[in-house]
Specification:
The protein has about 170 residues and is α+β, with helices and mostly antiparallel strands. It has a seven-stranded antiparallel β-sheet with strand order 1-7-6-5-4-3-2, covered by helices on one side. Helix 2 crosses helix 3. The protein starts with 5 loop residues before the first strand and ends in a 19-residue tail after the last helix.
């Protein structure tokens, strides 16, 4: 029998991005951009990705870890104000088991030299799933990849895959 439980947490991560708001927002809103940085484990195998970026739209990201276990991310966009905020809800599954549900807000504001971005996630871990800080760590790695994507997007030699990123946190997960 499965133990039914709900453990709540709030994650707040602030980043200063070296890009104007329009570029930072575009990195979240276009499938071609987001797919390049939205990963926290470069060695995992991408299975399916889709992004319909609009209120009422959805995003999916399915990957298999090194043991072949499915990690499924299914999001639904609730509110989008271009160049200002994104609000979405999502669930995560490991295999067929739902491990969490979240409400996330990403806020953007102009700052000297770029954009201040504040990522806030209110998450509930379900039915005894022991996160042990992995969600925060994985989100930080993903946001490291976003920063690198924006910096490299500006360089004359544009890259096509962030999945090879050597984030300092990459080896910790």
């Amino acid at each position: 029998m499965t133990t039914r439980s709900a453990e709540h947490a709030t994650l707040v991560i602030e980043r200063h991005l070296k890009a104007p708001i329009s570029r930072a927002f575009r990195a979240w809103s276009t499938p071609e951009s987001k797919r390049q940085w939205f990963a926290c484990h470069g060695e995992w195998v991408p299975l399916d990705y889709g992004l319909d970026f609009r209120p009422g739209g959805a995003e999916t990201n399915y990957v298999a870890d090194t043991d072949g276990l499915l990690h499924a991310y299914d999001a639904h966009y609730i509110d989008i104000v271009p160049d200002a905020r994104i609000i979405y809800a999502y669930e995560m599954k490991l295999g067929e088991s739902r491990i969490s549900a979240s409400l996330t807000t990403v806020a953007f504001e102009a700052a000297p030299g770029g954009t201040k971005m504040v990522f806030t996630e209110q998450v509930v871990f379900l039915d005894g799933y022991a996160d042990n800080g992995a969600r925060l760590q994985g989100t930080e790695i993903g946001l490291d990849n976003l920063e690198l994507f924006l910096e490299r997007e500006e360089s004359p030699i544009h890259w096509s895959h962030v999945t090879q990123t050597k984030s300092p946190r990459m080896n910790q997960v």
